[in-house]
Amino acid sequence: MRELSEKDLLLIELGIYIGMRNERAIRDLLPHLNKVNISKEQFAEVAFTLVLSRGIPSWLIAYPFINKIEIVEEVNLKQPTFIEGKAYYLEESATPNVYADWVTVGYEVYAEAIEQYGQLRQEILRTRYVERVIKECMLYALNRIDNFVAGEQLHYANILKLSDKSLDLDSLDRLVNRIKNGSD
């Protein structure tokens, strides 16, 4: 069973605070991020991940802090291979041949937007500097904090699928409970 590392948990906590648009908490977290060598690229990737569920305001809260991160990574990244929209949603779904009603309705009324959103989602969620499973943990945590059960279930299923059910989530649950209960 793989446990989340201190760095993993700090990336998730950063994502939670960006999603909550909590500038004070982000500022307070900066020394810890630098201590575990979180890079500018990782910080930016976490922030952009939150754009999917929290919108551009999350990026607007986060980007001023990027230059306070000391580490810079230089990596040549492979371009992702995009999967046609419906196939992508089917592949991502934790239950084979089932995807969210919002996708079905979206295809009926605005297929082009759903296709483009699918491509944006694939690009943002792919592993570059931050593992996809860590991004799913962030989204799961935020949905738990917001008591949004459908989102929580979707991201929990993705965590299990991506980790082959080998990720110990006890430390994530403690982090979520600490933030949710305001003992932060």
Ordered list of secondary-structure elements with their pairings:
Elements: E1 2-3, H1 6-20, H2 23-35, H3 40-54, H4 56-62, H5 85-92, H6 101-125, H7 132-145, H8 149-163, E2 167-168, H9 170-180
Parallel strand pairs: 1-2
β-strand percent reads under 5%
Helical content band: 55-70%
Distance separating the two termini: 28 Å
Judging from the principal axes of the Cα atoms, what is the shape?
globular
Number of DSSP-assigned strands: 2
What is the number of independent domains? 2
| Biggest β-sheet: strands ordered side by side in the sheet | 1-2
The major beta sheet can be summarized as: 2 strands, parallel
With helices defined by DSSP (H or I, 4 residues minimum), what is the helix count?
9
Question: What's the gyration radius in Å?
Answer: 16 Å
Q: Give the low-confidence spans.
A: none
